[in-house]
Amino acid sequence: MTPSLMNFFYSLLAGLLIVVVPATVGLIFISQKDKVERS
After folding, report:
1. 25: closest CA among 33, 37, 36, 35?
2. Which is a GO BP term held by this UniProt record (predicted)?
3. How far is Cα 26 from Cα 21, in angstroms, rounded to an integer?
């Protein structure tokens, strides 16, 4: 595997950590904080 391909995979992983993880944590936090009352 070439170094540039490895850097590409590392950048994908970094983007995943920067975008997906905070979005998931935020959605979980909001969904727990703002519960819908169902009767």
Report:
1. 33
2. photosynthesis
3. 9
**DSSP-based three-state secondary structure for 35:** coil
**Backbone dihedral angles phi then psi of residue 8, each to the nearest 5 degrees:** -60, -45
Sign of CA dihedral 28, 29, 30, 31: positive
Q: How far apart are CA 11 and CA 17, in angstroms?
A: 10
Question: pLDDT tens, 1-39?
Answer: 899 999 999 999 999 999 999 999 999 999 888 777 777
**C-alpha span between 26 and 33 (Å, rounded):** 10
